[in-house]
Automatic annotation (TrEMBL):
Stated name of the protein: Protein translocase subunit SecY
Gene that encodes the chain: secY
Bilayer-spanning residue ranges: 18-36, 68-92, 112-132, 144-162, 169-187, 207-228, 260-281, 301-323, 356-377, 383-401
Assembly description: Component of the Sec protein translocase complex. Heterotrimer consisting of SecY, SecE and SecG subunits. The heterotrimers can form oligomers, although 1 heterotrimer is thought to be able to translocate proteins. Interacts with the ribosome. Interacts with SecDF, and other proteins may be involved. Interacts with SecA.
PROSITE patterns: SECY_1 (PS00755), SECY_2 (PS00756)
Alphabetic keyword roster: Cell membrane, Membrane, Protein transport, Translocation, Transmembrane, Transmembrane helix, Transport
Function noted in UniProt: The central subunit of the protein translocation channel SecYEG. Consists of two halves formed by TMs 1-5 and 6-10. These two domains form a lateral gate at the front which open onto the bilayer between TMs 2 and 7, and are clamped together by SecE at the back. The channel is closed by both a pore ring composed of hydrophobic SecY resides and a short helix (helix 2A) on the extracellular side of the membrane which forms a plug. The plug probably moves laterally to allow the channel to open. The ring and the pore may move independently.
Entry membrane topology: Multi-pass membrane protein
Keyword hit for Ribonucleoprotein: no
Location of the protein in the cell: Cell membrane; Membrane
Length: 418
């Protein structure tokens, strides 16, 4: 590992990419401390001391939401716009056609994503400003508009930073911004544990147990994230002109966790909606319903697991086109040993995908419930470890590491003469 790190700084181009990425991180962290004009930050911070929804969103923004800074919405509108466009590809033929047109088509999709980010960001910013109007110094239409424009501008600036990291730095810029926001909360979590130790709420054995469970969870997430089912494909020999093609064996890698972290985000958003409404609406029956969906209640936990299972299958079905995969195998003269090309191949791939998706869905449900289990076992609560955060951190770290390794390998390639 240390040799790999040393290689990064020996290569000028790679060193410049790393330095640029770190510089963008500094800009991102500096922006989390610039408050939106016209708000009472002290009143807003009180809201984040009660409620897992606000705490979870604050973790993704790297603490910017609790400070109500210009980066309070983080990059969430961009992610929502990207997910909506990906789902629309199934029902809008034009979007599907653009996605197959290479660079030019990707530019069109990117422009739509940017426009959707601005629109969704402004709508979300208006909702946040109106919902938190009690914390505005001079509540009024102009103040709410000013806050909404400031928050939207912050999200657009983060989107630009992410694109700059992707083009001039290392890794996917949008993912790295979320990664930086989550990792930046680790010192606060360690401080909370230290306060627990000082007050006698927990002892050193609880902390050691917490560390062991955390390490085991990381290993488990890495193993499942890297897990694939290899489907062997045999390509027949064919002659084109004077050249012979094919005659080799390959495989199709089907990921166990094909949906990634999206099902947890969808399920959390749906279940947190009643809780959010209950915090801003002072109606008795609304408060009662919101209490049923409070984090950790039996109803919430049961629905949470069922929704994760549903959204895992739904998103996998949308993102993985089994019929198209089967057609591509047939088009290039391939076949799965023991199966005829066409419908038998499609049915077989669909059956395999359904089985491994079930394993991935159960894995996501377990990871999503782990924070509650860890808090119950160790007595250490108030630390958002596990679930969405852990999947994002591990996934982004693995992808970035692969990109660094490929760049290092490319620069150190010795050629055929040696």
């Amino acid at each position: 590992m240390f040799a790999a790190l040393a290689n990064i700084f020996r290569i000028t181009e790679l060193r410049q990419k790393v330095v640029f990425t770190l510089a963008m991180f500094i800009v991102f962290r500096a922006g989390t401390h610039i408050p939106v004009p016209g708000v009472n930050v002290a009143m807003i911070e009180q809201l984040f001391q009660s409620g897992n929804l606000f705490g979870l969103l604050d973790m993704f923004s790297g603490g910017a939401l609790s400070k109500f800074s210009i980066f309070a919405m983080s990059i969430t509108p961009y992610i929502n716009a990207s997910i909506i466009l990906q789902l629309l590809k199934v029902v809008v033929p034009t979007l599907e056609q653009w996605s197959k047109e290479g660079v030019e088509g990707q530019k069109k999709v990117t422009q739509l994503t940017r426009g959707g980010t601005v629109l969704l960001g402004f709508i979300q910013a208006l909702g946040m400003a109106y919902g938190l109007r009690s914390a505005i110094n001079n509540p009024g239409i102009m103040s709410i508009l000013l806050i909404a424009i400031s928050l939207t501008a912050g999200t657009v600036f983060l989107m630009w930073i992410g694109e700059q990291i992707t083009s001039k730095g290392i890794g996917n810029g949008i993912s790295l911004i979320i990664f930086a926001g989550i990792v930046s909360r680790l010192p606060d979590g360690m401080h909370v544990i230290f306060q627990y130790l000082q007050s006698g709420t927990v002892n050193i054995l609880n902390v050691i147990l917490f560390a062991v469970i955390a390490l085991a969870m990381i290993v488990f997430v890495v193993a499942i994230s890297q897990g694939i089912r290899k489907i062997p494909v045999q390509y027949a020999k064919r002659v084109v002109g004077r050249k012979m093609y094919g005659g080799h064996t390959s495989y199709i890698p089907l990921k166990v966790n094909q949906a990634g972290v999206i099902p947890i985000i969808f399920a959390s958003s749906v279940l947190m909606f009643p809780v959010t409404i209950g915090q801003f609406v002072d109606i008795p029956w609304v408060k009662t319903v919101a209490g049923w969906f409070a984090w950790g209640t039996p109803l919430q936990t049961t629905l949470y697991v069922l929704m994760i299972l549903f959204f895992t299958y739904f998103y996998t079905a949308v993102s993985v086109n089994i019929a198209e995969m089967s057609d591509n195998i047939k088009k290039y003269g391939g076949f799965i040993p023991g199966l005829r090309p066409g419908k038998p191949t499609t049915d077989y791939l669909d059956k395999i995908m359904s089985r491994i998706t079930l394993a991935g869905a159960i894995f996501l449900a377990l990871i999503a419930l782990m924070p509650n289990v860890v808090g119950w076992i160790t007595g250490i609560e108030g630390i958002y470890f596990g679930g969405t955060a852990l999947l994002i951190v591990v996934g982004v770290a693995l992808d970035t590491m692969k990109q660094v390794e490929s760049l290092v390998l490319m620069r150190h390639y010795q050629g055929f003469m040696k």
